[in-house]
Amino acid sequence: MKKIALLSMTVMMMAALPASMASASDLTFTTGGDQGTYYGFGSVLAGQVSGATDTTVTAITSGGSQANIEALQYGDAQLGFVQSDVMAYAYEGTNLFDGEAVQDFSTVADLYMEQVQIVTCNPDIKSVEDLKGKNVSIGAPGSGVYFNAMDILGVYGLTEDDITPTYESFGDSADSLQDGKIDAAFITAGAPTTAVTSLATSKDVYLVGLDDEHIDALLEECPYYSKNVISADTYGLDADVSTVAVGAVVIARDDVAEEDVYNFVSTIFENIDTITDAHAKGAELDVEFAASVTAVPYHPGAAKYFEEKGLTVPTK
């Protein structure tokens, strides 16, 4: 009878554990839309980790950075992709998270740069100023793209009132450009982005570049951006395009097991060639860049791997 009672108590205790702790080696990785880089690259990473370690990672689609932080906050996922600027907003309680700081997550690794791409099929739209009076998609509600759009419009002296805004995801923006429903779209994602590549197969695609003067002004005001160049061959453009970028960072709930996060990070950076064969973004993986985040402390499992590589990262 004592053994039965003890077993029953154990079962009850397991049932009472949070979802993030009940199965520490079965992790949900929330990414982005099915036509975005987050989901495509995240699926490759999840498959690599699941196949090489005892940690099973399942990549799922989502509404983007804010939704991913909220999914971790409520225990619906254990890992997530976020833009570095949105991650800072959450941790500091600003912008998207104004007055409601979220700090129960940690950095895993910064994987690549996400370019702010202003996409159009209209060759007459050559500068940000040309967006005035146009119908422009400025990102899905709750996405970091909206704030990227506001930052860039603002540095050129424009506001949301100077355009006719629509609020669409990457895929929906591409469809609207295809159908001529909008004139341009802001898309923040690693280039090449599936939605833009698909659009370019049926329409002439152009990217609106930023000039150095306005880029410098933006970096002065918003230091989480960095200058970036999208090469002409990315989408078959006539010339390289200057823009700004933020980091694509993987974060984890603080209560994810150290071993699982270590498995995730070590598998990625010990198998870069294999990952690159499966997705072009693998070529941008760099262990020193991965350890460069300062806005949010690192998870102990990530810190353990970086220490093995001679790199010290901040932890809680």
How is this structure best described in words?
Strands 1, 2, 3, 4, 5, 6, 7, 8, 9 and 10 form a ten-stranded mixed β-sheet that branches. The chain has 13 helices and ten strands. It is an alpha/beta fold. The radius of gyration is 21 Å and the shape is globular.
List keywords for this structure.
316 residues, alpha/beta, 13 helices, 20% strand, disordered N terminus
Low-confidence stretches at least 5 residues in length (pLDDT < 50)?
A: 1-23
Report strand %. 15-25%
Query: What is the number of helical segments per DSSP (H or I, 4+ residues)?
Result: 13
Q: Count the strands?
A: 10
Succession of helices and strands: HHEHEHEHEEHEHEHEHEEHHHH
User: How would you describe the shape?
Assistant: globular
The oligomeric status of these chains comes to: single chain
Helix content: 25-40%
- Which secondary-structure class do the elements indicate? alpha/beta
Overall pLDDT metric: 90
Termini distance? Answer: 45 Å
| Main sheet makeup | 10 strands, mixed
Q: Radius of gyration over alpha carbons?
A: 21 Å
